[in-house]
Write a structure and sequence with these properties.
Chain A is of the alpha+beta class. In chain A, 29% of the residues lie in helices and 31% in strands. Chain A contains twelve helices and 23 strands. Classes of the chains: A alpha+beta (557), B alpha/beta (177).
């Protein structure tokens, strides 16, 4: 594609609307309109310039503002549909049956909703691709527009061609008596108004708030940093979200935190009074909890210790984890999430004579460490042959356990007394009469109480992306503020030695502020009165066609 | 011409980086829940655990030998079923440089000893009391078996029950040459 040679001799890239050097309109459309489009200061949008290879075609697709807006709308619509039914993580159903939940509760539409991934929108591939495409669009469109705009603003000439100045919205023409004095006065006043003034012979350019033009680009940089932060959550080490159940008295390795161990010393549940309040009871709510607390000790392995080596754990500190008071260590935080009360920890049995109910003594079985044999000291002893923490029935005569948790402990005992030196075998399951597989016994194990313990559930979190998200958000807001509350004002003035004056002014938004400055400087320097070319439709209705006029509203790019 | 080439290269790089980022995000999300901490070919994390006889077993001490590392629990039926077959194959391969190590997940000594006695297991059984080895190996469901080659690298990861023939072939796989 060929460059456009302006009448001033400057060679402009293809697609340029206003000559980079003198500002003459280069397009037919531009030449015919009364007020030129000052968006991007008339520079060529880069994508329009080249369209040779497939890469350029893809680039140009994303460079289009229309495509960008379409992507934003599609993303918004998808996100709003995602709010119609609850997201899967908030659905009260176990993980594998969530799909059925949607069908059961919401019917065919619910099934479709789930199958399309709308039930887990942020983790759905097509939504992520959509957001990713939006990111590409933001980056490409900003590069294509921001760089030429920056170049053009940086290389602005003081002197512009008449045809450029006359096509600005604000113009003034007339005569002054003393050319140099007028220029000096304008320079003085505009400097007082905090404009940046440059002069070149008979021409003057006063400019203020140029950085306002960068607002949208700064805003886009913030957005991209934010999205990068969100993406980094997937990179190992940036984001940890683990969970752990731990019983009182247990020491466990903390998942996600290499080398750290936690011991649950005590779980405390405090409630507000013993009685239920009327309203709570009617709603089926239990006594109101005042405090959930787990007293823990945090340990760390010595440097270089291997997993499994918990001999020389180094105590870091004691802490009470409460709701909203997580344990914080090395960027990680442990939150109190859940609890389970009353898991069996110790069971006591008396060895009694069935006929006389006379006890031979008591054994205390620590379920975390049952012993093979308990000697009662008086010639009697009890052996544990089998212990199943969660008894689920017999298989080939062997008692089976469902889990390793003592939900339903059962024991196969051999009881020896001086009266029965060979021993009697009894199978004892909690809350059931004992079984006597080898015939009628004289003795039995009588349940004599138990000790319970509680478990706590913690969530382990680490999110190193938060500072990135924060920085991205702050930059985003700075961009919005710059673009919204500042504006780029320019005044071009040309005073020929014979006193002929041509003045033009441009502002990318907030024309009122510009006019205020113009009023001041016009009065002070005795300039001819200016007029707003969009103000006088009765002058010529033809040129004020919609679409060709510069919009009063946001034109910040 | 030079400028055009440069422009094409820059555009291609920018688009490629962005497409890679999107691809990484989509892939990362899709595999987030089933991510294996250990990849085949990566170094098996070293650990040290104590067996029922009070002897320490350190994985790196078995360097130069293949290791058949099995995670199990007494309540886990498939674990129970494959144990006798593992023991038979252990006896075949232990003199050929393949060690077997069974890691129980945080159960009581009593239960583990009882289980070992019942099946007359001869290979070393260690108990991961603090679940730290389980965490380091990211073991979820039981049984899980890792085959570690003589160089200490993970050669294969098997989840679920194994037949005796499979066990034999896996041990063959990590046998030192």
């Amino acid at each position: 594609m060929e460059n456009i040679i302006c009448a001033c001799g400057h060679s402009n890239p293809y697609g340029t609307k206003l000559c980079e050097k003198c500002g003459r309109p280069l397009t037919e459309e531009g030449k015919q309109t009364k007020v030129v489009d000052m968006r991007y200061d008339g520079t060529a949008i880069r994508s329009k310039t080249y369209n040779a290879t497939i890469v350029d075609k893809i680039w140009n697709f994303f460079s289009s503002v229309k495509v960008g807006i379409a992507l934003i709308i599609i993303t918004l619509v998808a996100a709003s549909i995602g709010t119609i039914l609850p997201q899967a993580i908030y659905v009260n159903a176990p993980e594998p049956s969530k799909a059925e939940y949607y069908e059961k509760v919401y019917g065919v539409l619910g099934k479709l909703y789930n199958n399309l991934g709308l039930s887990n929108l942020y983790n759905t591939w097509w939504f992520q691709i959509l957001v990713g495409m939006l990111a590409i669009s933001i980056i490409v469109a900003s590069l294509d527009r921001g760089l030429p705009l920056h170049k053009s603003l940086k290389n602005q000439r003081v002197k512009r061609h008449e045809s450029f100045m006359k096509r600005q919205r604000i113009i003034a023409e007339g005569q002054v008596s003393n050319a140099d004095e007028t220029l000096d006065k304008v320079e003085k006043k505009m400097s007082e108004l905090k404009y940046n003034v440059r002069r070149d012979g008979s021409a003057l350019l006063a400019e203020r708030g140029r950085f306002a033009r960068y607002g949208p680009y700064i805003n886009h940089v913030g957005l991209i940093i934010f999205l990068t932060g969100v993406m980094l959550r997937l990179v190992p080490g940036f984001y940890v979200d683990e969970t752990i159940w731990i019983r009182e008295g247990e020491t466990r390795a903390i998942p996600g935190m290499d080398g750290y161990f936690i011991k649950n010393n005590k779980f405390i549940l405090e409630t507000h009074g013993e009685k239920q309040q009327g309203g709570e009871a009617s709603q089926g709510v239990n006594v109101m909890a005042k405090n959930y607390q787990t007293d823990i000790t945090l340990y760390k392995q010595p440097e270089g210790a291997l997993p499994g080596d918990s001999d020389n754990l180094e105590k870091l500190r004691d802490y009470s984890i409460r709701v909203n008071h997580p344990l914080k260590e090395n960027g990680f935080a442990l939150y109190q999430m859940n609890y389970r009360l009353n898991e069996l920890r110790q069971m006591n049995f008396n060895l009694v004579n069935k006929a006389s109910e006379e006890s031979q003594g008591q054994i205390k079985i620590d379920l975390t460490n049952p012993k093979k044999e308990y000697d009662l000291g008086n010639g009697s002893s009890v052996q544990i042959l089998v212990y199943t923490p969660d008894f689920s029935g017999f298989e080939n005569g062997e008692p089976q356990t469902k889990t390793s948790i003592p939900n339903n402990p059962a024991f196969l005992f051999r009881m020896k007394t001086p009266e029965t030196p060979k021993g009697e075998v009894s199978f004892v399951e909690i809350r059931k009469p004992p079984l006597e597989p080898l015939g009628e016994n004289k003795y039995r194990m009588k349940f004599a109480g138990a000790e319970m313990r509680n478990s706590s559930n913690f969530t382990i979190r680490k999110d190193s992306t938060i500072p990135i998200l924060f920085v991205g958000g702050v930059i985003f807001m700075i961009g919005v503020v710059i673009g919204s509350y500042w504006n780029h004002r320019r005044l071009w003035l040309q005073v020929d030695p014979d006193g002929r004056v041509l003045m033009a002014a441009h502002v990318n938004k907030n024309m009122f502020s510009m006019k205020k400055d113009l009023d001041t400087v016009t009065t002070f320097a005795g300039l001819p009165p200016y007029r707003d070319q969009l103000d006088k439709p009765e002058d010529d209705n033809k040129s004020a066609k919609p679409g060709t006029k510069e919009k009063e509203g946001d034109n910040t790019l | 011409m030079e400028k055009k080439k440069k422009r094409l290269v820059i555009r291609t790089i920018i688009l490629a980086v962005l497409v890679f980022a999107i691809g990484y995000t989509v892939y990362g999300t899709a595999t987030k829940d089933k991510v294996e901490l250990l990849a085949v070919g990566s170094k098996a994390p070293d650990f040290t655990l104590v067996d029922l006889n009070g002897e320490k077993h350190k994985l790196s001490d078995y360097k130069g030998q293949g290791v058949f590392l099995n995670f199990w629990g007494t309540w886990c039926k498939p674990c129970e079923k494959e144990m006798p077959a593992m023991d038979r194959q252990y006896k075949v391969f232990k003199d050929q440089g393949v060690q077997t190590l069974a890691v129980n997940i945080a159960q009581t000594d009593f239960e583990v000893q009882n289980f070992v006695d019942r099946y007359e297991l001869t290979f070393p059984v260690v108990i991961d009391k603090t679940k730290s080895v389980q965490t380091a190996y990211n073991v979820g469901n039981l049984p899980a078996t890792l085959l570690i080659d003589p160089d200490g690298k993970v050669a294969k990861i098997i989840t679920g029950e194994m037949t005796e023939a499979k066990i034999a072939s896996y041990m063959e796989l990590v046998k030192p040459k």
